[in-house]
Amino acid sequence: MEDSSGYEETKIDISEQAEYDIDYDICEIFVTLHLINGEQIALRNHCYESFTTKRYCGDKIEYWDTLLHDVVEVYYHDEDDKYHQCRVPVSSICYINAYAVPLNWSNLYEYVWKKENGR
Q: Residue 101: beta bridge partners?
């Protein structure tokens, strides 16, 4: 998820992305962990914020192979922007749904330009 956020792209800015659509790999990533108890954990990489601030601002998931069982550690903000940190046994996950959405850099650049110029 971090790689797709473009936060390490220090040589290009949003105007270049808008004009040339340089990197198709910079996109918003959505991942949903579906648990056996019916709950879901929704994650995303917050691509636009990560790209413009040049630091990763998205959610994180890490796999750990422990002596007792395999777990994933999840660090995320929910839809109410509350921060969560949890360990989920891999055996509790039914399936994982993931997809990418390309950003409309031209519209984002226009929005930023208007905001910066008071329009």
A: 28
